[in-house]
Amino acid sequence: MRQVYMISGGVTRFKKARPEKTHQGLVQEAFDQAYSDLPRLRKEHIDGSVASYFSDHFHHQLMAGIMAHDALGLVPKPSRRIEGGGATGGLCFQSAYEAIASGRMDVCVAFGFETMSRVRTWKGNEFIAMASDMNFDYPLGGFYTGYYAMMVVRHMHEFGTTPEQMAKVAIKNHGNAKHNPFAQSPKKLSVKQIRNSQMVAYPLTRLDCCVMSDGAAVAILASEKMAEKLSSNPIRITGVGSATDTMRLADRPFGDVPLLSNENKKEYKDLDYPGVHSCRAGRLAAKQAYKMAKIKDPLKDLSFVELHDAFTSSEIQTYEDLGLCKIGEGGKYIDSGNAHYGGKCPVNLSGGLIGAGHAIGASGLMQAVFAFWQLQGTIKKHFKNNKLQIKKPKRGLIHSHGGTGTYVTATVMEKP
């Protein structure tokens, strides 16, 4: 395979509603930002695109991807649409990576979007719930808040995780979002405010959940030769991993924990895995990406992580899936301060989905753009402040998660 680089990225402001723009207009806005950062890039350099959006229902439109591809002036070049629940953006990014690595393209645009405000919130939740088993899960009350509430209740029972630890995730992510001008939900919060906010599905309150958003994001990937030609500050993609699990939680068999290189079997000899407290696909995706990127200890080898925090509980679970701490110690990880700016491995400095917003098809690409700027050292340029810029970052990981861990991607990016 050829080496692959990200050479530019752009993202719109994520908002509750963007009624003034179609999905094509949102993609164009993000693309124009990425395009303007690469003065040597011309449309003729672009070989094709990959489109990322979750639901045809939000747009009331089939083949919405080709409409955005057309709006960007890329017809008749090749394009395809990717969909995988909440992991849609991460899968899109990896599909663009594969187009470059295989030699099929030299420059590929990965773009994602969602216009979730086109329907009422209850209807949007129904559409999202269609990413569960409609014959088995959904008739039992299957909105995703219910699924994740069940998962974290088991996590609390097994490991002693507390709602107050979950609240600390929301405080961190909303606080980081205050410095991100593209974020939808920057707030200064306290544990008391979060626990006293409207209960959605115990123990998840309204402030433990991400919000539905309108927005778009674009990542431009290139071969080494074109990266050298077009960019003075490219970022190399050194590890990719993806995995799947059964749609129904009840179908997941118990087995051995997929060990990361910094773990040993004895640590988990008494653990029933994966249960409903862990996401096996997340572990397997991380394991693949770490092996490819030659990461031995993620806590030491990663400078930061941007992960899929649809709920505060899922961020705590994902600390464990990615090996930032042992399984069962996610609550302790947020308590330790290591997930905060200045910690051993900060998580969601952008604000994540909880603070920045969740426009499903764009979210994984939004993470890629923020990771790209972080590694480039250009946070000040794009955020107009330097509050969240890490000093001399070397490697970052982006993580996308669909369903209840049914599709998961992990991608390592690093400074060459």
Number of strands: 11
CATH class of the domain at 4-120: Alpha Beta
Please summarize the sheet with the most strands.
9 strands, mixed
Approximately what portion of the residues adopt beta-strand conformation?
15-25%
Helical stretch tally: 16
Provide the CATH superfamily of the domain at 4-120: Thiolase/Chalcone synthase
Q: Give the CA-based shape.
A: globular
Kindly report how far apart the N and C termini lie: 17 Å
Offer a quick outline of the entry.
With 416 residues, the protein is of the alpha/beta class.
Features:
416 residues; Peroxisomal Thiolase, Chain A, domain 1; nine-stranded mixed β-sheet; alpha/beta
Task: Describe this protein's structure.
It is a single chain. By secondary structure, this protein is α/β, with parallel strands linked by helices. The protein has a domain at about 5-120: Peroxisomal Thiolase, Chain A, domain 1 (3-Layer(aba) Sandwich). It has 16 helices and 11 strands. It has helices at about 25-35, 55-60, 65-70, 90-100, 120-130, 145-160, 165-175, 190-195, 225-230, 280-295, 300, 310-320, 330-335, 350-355, 360-375, 380-385; strands spanning about 5-10, 50, 80, 105-115, 200, 205, 215-225, 235-245, 305, 395-400, 405-415. The longest helix is centred in the last third of the chain and has 17 residues, at about 360-375. The protein is globular, with a radius of gyration of 20 Å.
Secondary-structure blueprint:
Elements: E1 4-11, H1 23-36, E2 48-52, H2 56-59, H3 64-71, E3 79-82, H4 88-101, E4 107-115, H5 121-129, H6 144-159, H7 163-177, H8 191-196, E5 199-201, E6 204-205, E7 214-223, H9 224-230, E8 235-244, H10 280-293, H11 298-301, E9 304-306, H12 312-321, H13 330-336, H14 352-356, H15 360-376, H16 379-383, E10 395-402, E11 407-414
Parallel strand pairs: 2-3, 2-4, 9-10
Antiparallel strand pairs: 1-7, 1-8, 4-7, 5-6, 8-11, 10-11
